[in-house]
Input
Amino acid sequence: MSERGNIKKVSELLRGRQISCEELTKSYIDEIEKSNGELNAYVKITPESALETARAVDKKIADGEELSPLEGIPMTLKDNISTDGIETTCCSKILKGYVPVYDATVWDILKKQNAVLLGKTNMDEFAMGSSCETSCFGGAKNPHNIEHVAGGSSGGVASAVGGNIAVYGLGSDTGGSIRQPASFCGIVGLKPTYGAVSRYGLIAYASSFDQIGPITTSVEDAAIVFDAISEYDERDSTSRGKNGTPSATTLKNSIKGMRIGIAKEYIDGVRDDVREAVLGASKVYESLGAEIVYFDLPVLKYSLPVYYILACAEASSNLGRYDGIRYGYKAEHYDDVNDMIKKTRSEGFGDEVKRRILLGTYVLSSGYYDAYYKKAQNLRGTIVNAFKDAFTKCDVILAPTVPMTAFKNGNAISDPVETYLTDICTVPVNICGLPAVSVPCGFNANGMPIGMQLIGNTFAEATILNAAYQYETAVPEAFKSSDFGIKL
Amino acid sequence: MKYELVAGFETHVELSTKTKIFCGCTTQFGGEPNTHCCPICIGLPGTLPKLNRQVVRYAVMAGLATNCTIPETAKMDRKNYCYPDLPKAYQISQYDMPLCVGGYVQLSNGRRIRLTRIHIEEDAGKLIHRHGDTLVDYNRGGVPLIEIVSEPDIRSIEEAREYVEKLQLIMRYIGVSDCKMQEGSMRCDVNISVREVGSDKLGTRTEIKNMNSIAFIAKAMEYEFERQVDILENGGQVVQETLRYDDVTNTTSSMRGKEDANDYRYFRDPDLVTINVSREEVEELRGLLPELPTQKAERYVNELGLSETDAALLTKYRRIAEYYEAACEGTKNPKTAANFIISQIFRRLDTESDKEDFNIKVTADALNELIKLLDDGKIRMNLAKSTLDKMLDTGKRATELISESDMGGLDDAALLALCEQAIASNGNAVNDYKNGKEKAIKSLIGFVMKNSRGKADAAAAETKIKELIG
Output
């Protein structure tokens, strides 16, 4: 039976010498060339270096050497993760031509394990957006229906993994950018605890929210990748590294007695099909012996303004460096240095990025700082405490990932504020630095995937992945693959 | 109407850590443009700062040496502004939770100049204008600075001068900075206003930016004081503005108006964690502080009996003070070593930086040995002085330069013989002296000194010669 690939399966094929890594890599590259026109998942393909790595892996296999879990697995990176010698643009015109001279820590880790990087994937410009359509390369499409978006901002990774033209990928999640596209594309996306994975080399959107995590086709894959990349990094002062045992070792634990919390505010206001799917999943958990706990989480209503104020404030500062002087795009015609900077930024940034820079600059300005930034900062503390309190009542919070399924192409960018509202379920996790995994929990009437997220306390990745794995085992049909890509 | 000057200083001091504040690049001054740089200090996308703990330690030492309180926690903030020498478009600095608060610098007139705070921050790069192009050199970007902010407590140019010198002295002493104003490792922004004598209200102030010489600070303040007094006396109002001082014309001029005043949009840098300074570390750092120049100078006056002038000269540079103390060790009179250093050794050190470097061929131990020969009566002062000059020239020790036979004074018989010889061979001088020319005796003493190779006691020789001439 042909099935979509996952890390474990590909790994077994390689170790069992049923396929060479070079053949495997070639087939993925061929498939990318075939499907990417429709999916627009990749913005850069790196076949030469991929094949070179693949051959090195084949040699190791031939020599009978031990392989690490991610060795030889074809994968992709979101285009905001710095790769030495490979153009990294954040899908922004302003970074076109920028080639990093160093590797992000996560890529450094994976490269040492001979991960086969197929290319860099599409994203909303500077990770700002929910549909991947603010990308200067145009949006990535949903492999379940290319009339729909892949989601954002890590839309390219989700499209590639959901479309089976990468076994797994790394995305980044600032306000839902891993979980939302994973949900839209019917796959798994893990946003780790803030500090669990090094941010060094991740081109910043909002530094106190950004976190790198895996997008995979199975929960076990997410656990394997997370275990590999969660390492303390002295180059990132906010890094805290691993906590406790590897999450892949506890997936099969029984969840009997696990308290799964449902907050009314997460369920109210989401679309009926989504609500039904999530409540259906809670029934599955009950049948697995978990205890469902209901409570209120009224602070959730502050999440969106808090997120958009703080994230934009940080973004306005983080994006100040793109001035055309040292790297990337530079305006062609200008009068003097100030004019050059103005024109470079006016021409180089897209509308959504400009909108957020303006918003962030405004909320930090003298005279407005107290009313916006400071107030949001205080409320952030309130929300953190509310979640702390919630985790005295339950072990895991179950919630929808997005209040709806994937948007139709073009809908998200036509109404930005309406689109901001769709982040309501994902942003609280980033505000609090908590881990959350989005897993598929069914399809709507049009066959579009619905996702739910399992939210854990800080460093409780093992717990949420355990719960997710148990669901996946109980309801494998929710994880049904798209028709795209490689089947093994 | 009489006016008084009111001034406060913001002093930037480059810390002499080996590496930059947020990366491992060298802080060395100079170097080919953009060779002391890495992805972090040129702010490449995705890089993150990592705080160099030595910067915190030096800043705390600076705070302790200026009587500051060290809060247990501090944080780093972003100061956002756009300028090509600032590659991230923000400077990582400290806004409302600095490392050190509320100290003071004591002036010699008894007044205390209060310090509001001392905070740490990164320096920016440098723009180089050449042939109509502007180039950027980021070597200096990320070099650690402390900014020492004073209250408006300075009341005269003399006080300003002393304040800056004191800060310079203290920072050099505790070894946290070389404070070389000419290399920009110490720079001052001077906030200055005037008011009627007797008033306790502050006038509108102007700020003169980036002063890098004490002489210019004095001149600029003098000019600015008079300019503001003129305005007030003519019924005008001083405009709050930032000024630049032109040392060629000795005038100040406006750098930017109020309308484009910067809004720095300070906020906490999310890439850096809270800085904790434990009480144990504060005490450890306090323990590392050397005796400070003011304390040293006081001790030299009170315990060693030096004049205030000499004490000040010897304590101005830590190396000299340490040298002096070692040279003095176990000698009879602390003034002897002081005199040797101030008269003979300083003569060979032309500039302030020569004094600071204090590169001389005579070790403190060698000078100590020389003074002990003098103390023991083995040599006389004249011989000691000429020997010290030779030591400074050659780096040899006194015992290598003075032969055994030259050691020890002359006995009475030998002195008598030399005095007789002097009288016999200087008839003219003897006659002059007898005719009332008191000074003529000097040449007779000189004869004795010369022929005894400096071993004779000049005073004894004089007495003996007078006796003999009768």
Residues 370-393 of chain A form the longest helix (24 residues). The interface with chain B takes residues 80-82, 88, 90, 95, 98, 100-102, 104, 199-204, 206-208, 234-238, 313-314, 316-317, 320-321, 323, 325-327, 337, 341, 361, 364-366, 369, 373 of chain A (CB under 8 Å).
